Amino acid sequence: MQNTLERLRTAQQQDRAPTARPNPSGAPQQGGGSPTGTAALTQGEIRGLADQIAECWNVDRGMMNADQIVVELRVQLDSQGNVRNVVPNGAPPADPRARSVYESARRALLSPQCNPLRVPPSKFGTVMASIFRFNPRGLVR
């Protein structure tokens, strides 16, 4: 029965469209975290953060090949967990479609409706050291 439940969970995860979620850089840290706030986010925290941001993210319905576009951003938080700045992970996209996805993802992260981010204060450093990867596949509204 346990194997069946595990296979169902795996299948459900594969059926879901990717959404915005932080991708902590480097290997997850072991133990209970550190005083500098770099403990890895749990899967539940990542899912909650992705759901929170997805509520504020809108993508152009008519965009061609939207499923092939991926943009990566980094965030800077204040002490309350509000996003204060969003920067590209690398250079801003040059392709107009990717630029549109980048701008909409940036607006979602900065949106007052999506702030503060629901992340434990002890993990703010982890979020700021993370790459937020946005792919509109399955999210075109």
* Residue fraction in strands: 15-25%
Residue windows where pLDDT falls under 50 for at least 5 positions: 26-37
Order of helices and strands: HEHEEHHE
The SS-based structural class is: alpha+beta
What is the number of independent domains? 1
The backbone outline, from C-alpha atoms, is globular
Please explain how this structure is put together.
The chain is α+β, with helices and mostly antiparallel strands. The protein has one domain (2-25, 36-134). It has four helices and four strands; from the N terminus they run αβαββααβ. The chain has helices at 2-15, 43-54, 96-110, 124-128; strands at 21-24, 71-77, 83-88, 130-134. A four-stranded antiparallel sheet has the order 1-4-2-3. The radius of gyration is 16 Å and the shape is globular. The protein starts with a helix and ends in a 7-residue tail after the last strand. Mean pLDDT is 77; it is low at 26-37.
Summarize the helices and strands and which ones pair or pack.
Elements: H1 2-15, E1 21-24, H2 43-54, E2 71-77, E3 83-88, H3 96-110, H4 124-128, E4 130-134
Antiparallel strand pairs: 1-4, 2-3, 2-4
In short:
The chain is of the alpha+beta class. It has helices at residues 2-15, 43-54, 96-110, 124-128; strands at 21-24, 71-77, 83-88, 130-134. It contains four helices and four strands; from the N terminus they run H-E-H-E-E-H-H-E.
